[in-house]
């Protein structure tokens, strides 16, 4: 299988869906002529032209809301946020309009829209540009949210998101855009709501999403090599819908869980996972559920400290050893 | 009605090729048949009687939440909606009953929605502020001030994207002109030449705050469109002929040139911001309200006009009114007799894929209540 980058995988998914469905249109800041602030949409404007790939002014509330309105009429906009951190400018549109209109209309209207872009810390851009709002989105029934950790997942989940008839938020990661994974040439789609075991193990379950999966995998290698602990790594991939069965199955298998989550701990995704495990797999646990989240302060700029603020391999190992 | 003082609208003279004092002679109105004119009267009366009946039951505690009454503004919804063709769409804010009835929604489904019943237009899930009828090109019914303005733009974008010759009529109150989403929408509408008509229903008060206390540029709210290079106009909302003539110009601009317009319609609400507005007669004088009711009521003026034209008699008008009252009473009884939504419907209408039992709707957990 060819090795391609996470960025290219997304680019391929977008191109394939533009070709597949005439209603798919890419809209966002710098997505067309600039080729994408992070080059995810590189070459698409040249290939598909002005109608299918549209540069928007810096006007998130306006163009995201416009995309939602167009989706009510059956257009399938794929809206790029240069950073998910900018979503707060468009929050009313995303939460109140995309998220609630189906419900408030008694099911008469639906919004087949995708809102995508990177949501991550670790690039020393300070607190305003480092948000991971998957927990906020997941707290809104009516919205869906996925956080791919690999190129393979990014492509398959993006295609599923575009074909979905509900609003789907895709949270990517600028630190993964340049990383490469094996991606098959033939078409595939990864359903939303299906987790993936990224590493089989028997002694402890590391449950993560997004780039935290990669961190968990590194920790698992060290745990195996230096501590004789065989960790299983479960990648949630999708936060809402959530593959609860996969979570419970890995906990029933290993009897120990460490949740790795770039969200802040308070009301973050891992808080929901921990609640689920104690409600439904309490008797399977041999130790309290542990969490490794971003340290609970606004994202710090200092390059010397930001990597410590995010979930680290060292903190994961420490938590695992604590409950071994 | 106090006239908006300053501005010269940015439309060109030949767009309304009539004596501005008499919009009855505008082409769009001159061609009207008596039956259609009486139909407008009936629509306005129906809206008023519907709302008066809803008010009665609201005051009896039979409805929840807010009730934002449209009474006094009826000529705006009826006049504008009367111009809609197959590919023209409507979206508005939370004062939405008038537009809903004007597009053809039934009194029963609307009243039942106010009562929170399963037979309501939104199955009891939206309430007063959230009526929808996409089959009638009516996209709500939106609760956040100005929040619908990008959606209206999106309807216009969708029409243009699909190559349909239509437009979006996006209604808003005077309070919404100070929301950022509206200004972002104006910029995009002009930038991308989208067929949207923003109709500001200026009823003078954003809740309890007068224009003088809310808008820096207050002679005319539509004039702000100049900042985006968008054509704008003003209309007297008590005159259904004028509303139609001015709206027709804007819709023609959208249909023929794919260009936006901002149309400000001067109007007035007799009741408070919502029925719960305890200060409705404090931030404005009872005399002011009375003056509008007596001298500027759009329904009374339309009735007089039709009688002057020899189109309508007093007896016919009374019969139409009685029928509207009866229809509203029947709707109220329908709502009272209807069942409340079943508890399990709480989880319906959240996700399309779940409701339609698709494969995508069956993978993973979508709801997290025990």
Descriptive notes:
The complex is a heterodimer of chains A (324) and B (370). By secondary structure, chain A is α/β, with parallel strands linked by helices. Chain A has 2 domains: 3-182, Rossmann fold (3-Layer(aba) Sandwich); 196-322, Rossmann fold (3-Layer(aba) Sandwich), CATH 3.40.50.920. In chain A, 37% of the residues lie in helices and 18% in strands. Chain A has 12 helices and 14 strands. In chain A, α7 (151-163) links the parallel β6 (144-146) and β7 (168-172). The longest helix of chain A has 17 residues, at 211-227. Chain A is globular, with a radius of gyration of 19 Å. The mean pLDDT of chain A is 98. Chain B is an alpha/beta fold and 370 residues long. Chain B is built from 12 helices and 7 strands. In chain B, the strands form 2 sheets. A 5-stranded parallel sheet of chain B has the order 1-2-3-7-6, with helices on both faces. In chain B, strands 4-5 form a two-stranded antiparallel sheet. The interface between A and B is large, with 56 and 60 residues.
């Amino acid at each position: 299988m060819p090795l391609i980058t996470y960025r290219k995988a997304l680019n391929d998914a977008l191109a394939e869906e533009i070709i597949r469905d005439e209603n798919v249109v890419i809209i966002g800041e710098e997505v067309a002529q600039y080729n994408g602030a992070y080059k995810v949409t590189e070459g698409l404007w040249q290939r598909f032209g002005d109608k299918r790939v549209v540069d928007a002014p810096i006007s998130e509330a306006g163009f995201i809301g416009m995309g939602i309105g167009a989706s009510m009429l059956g257009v399938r906009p794929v809206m790029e946020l240069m950073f998910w951190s900018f979503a707060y400018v468009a929050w009313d549109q995303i939460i109140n309009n995309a998220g609630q209109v189906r419900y408030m209309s008694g099911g008469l209207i639906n919004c087949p829209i995708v809102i995508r872009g990177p949501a991550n810390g670790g690039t020393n851009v300070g607190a305003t540009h480092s948000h991971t709002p998957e927990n906020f989105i997941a707290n809104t029934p009516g919205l869906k949210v996925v956080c791919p950790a690999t190129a393979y997942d990014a492509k398959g989940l993006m295609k599923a998101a575009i074909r979905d008839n509900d609003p789907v938020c895709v949270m990517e990661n600028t630190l993964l855009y340049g990383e490469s994974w094996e991606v098959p040439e033939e078409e595939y789609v990864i359903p939303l709501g299906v987790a993936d075991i990224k590493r089989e193990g028997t002694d402890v379950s590391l449950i993560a999403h997004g780039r935290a999966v990669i961190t968990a995998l590194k920790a698992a290698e060290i745990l195996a090599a230096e501590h004789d602990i065989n960790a299983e790594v479960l990648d949630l991939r999708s936060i809402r819908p959530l593959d609860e069965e996969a979570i419970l199955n890995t906990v029933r298998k290993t009897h120990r869980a460490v949740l790795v989550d770039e969200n802040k701990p308070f009301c973050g995704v891992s808080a929901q996972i921990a609640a689920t495990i104690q409600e439904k797999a309490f008797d399977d646990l041999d130790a309290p559920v542990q969490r490794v989240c971003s340290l609970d302060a606004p994202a710090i700029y200092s390059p010397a400290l930001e990597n410590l603020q995010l979930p680290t391999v060292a903190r994961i190992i420490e938590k695992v050893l604590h409950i071994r | 009605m106090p006239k908006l003082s300053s501005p010269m609208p940015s439309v060109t003279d030949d767009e309304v090729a009539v004596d501005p004092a008499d919009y009855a002679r505008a082409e769009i109105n001159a061609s009207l048949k008596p039956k259609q004119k009486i139909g407008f009267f009936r629509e306005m009366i129906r809206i008023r009687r519907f709302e008066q009946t809803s008010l009665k039951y609201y005051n009896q505690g039979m409805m929840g939440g807010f009730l934002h009454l449209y009474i006094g503004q009826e000529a705006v919804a009826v006049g504008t909606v009367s111009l809609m063709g197959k590919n023209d769409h409507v979206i508005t804010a939370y004062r939405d009953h008038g537009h809903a009835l004007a597009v053809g929604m039934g009194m029963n489904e609307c009243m039942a929605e106010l009562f929170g019943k399963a037979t309501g237009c939104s199955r009891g899930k939206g309430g007063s502020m959230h009526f929808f009828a996409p089959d009638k090109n009516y996209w709500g019914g939106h609760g956040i001030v100005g929040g619908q303005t990008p959606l209206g733009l999106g309807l216009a974008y969708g029409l243009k994207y699909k190559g349909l010759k239509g437009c979006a009529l996006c209604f808003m109150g005077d309070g919404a002109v100070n929301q950022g989403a509206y200004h972002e929408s104006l910029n995009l509408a002009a930038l991308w030449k989208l067929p949207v008509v923003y109709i500001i229903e200026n009823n003078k008060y954003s809740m309890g705050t007068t224009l003088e206390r809310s808008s820096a540029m207050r002679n005319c709210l539509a004039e702000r469109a100049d900042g985006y290079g968008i054509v704008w106009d003003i209309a007297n909302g008590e005159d259904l002929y004028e509303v139609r003539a001015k709206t027709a110009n804007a819709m023609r601009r959208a249909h023929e040139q794919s260009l936006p317009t901002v149309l400000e319609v001067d109007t007035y609400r007799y009741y408070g911001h919502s029925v719960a507005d305890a200060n409705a007669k404090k931030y404005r004088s009872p005399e002011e309200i009375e003056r509008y009711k007596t001298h500027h009521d759009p329904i009374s003026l339309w009735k007089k006009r039709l009688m002057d034209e020899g189109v309508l008699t007093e007896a016919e008008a009374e019969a139409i009114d009685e029928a509207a009252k009866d229809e509203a009473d029947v709707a109220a009884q329908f709502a009272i007799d209807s069942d409340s939504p079943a508890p399990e419907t709480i989880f319906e209408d959240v996700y399309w894929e779940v409701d339609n039992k698709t494969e995508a709707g069956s993978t993973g957990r979508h709801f997290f209540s025990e």
